Amino acid sequence: MANSQPIFDYRDESHADKLARKSKDSPFMIIGIIGLIGVCGFGAYKFKTRGEMSTSVFLMQLRVAAQGTVVSALTLGLAYTLAKKHLFKDDKAE
To answer: How do residues 15-37 score in pLDDT, each as one tens digit?
Structure first.
């Protein structure tokens, strides 16, 4: 018979605890968030020197760069997890 009590109650978890738990579960998510902050910071710095480019085009290119950074970090994390699970598995652990 299955135990009806929850193992961990997530409602009692603070934002810092949730970020710490998520960083342990998937460390590449944290790398993606840091990359996103870096791209947004770089975009804010370069906003004044955009030249003749319109604001909407600049922001569109910035959005694509930020999304590309996060998606590539998550893709690398997925590839690392799959390689660790299927290619480099240790038979002694099982």
So the answer is: 888 888 888 877 787 888 888 88
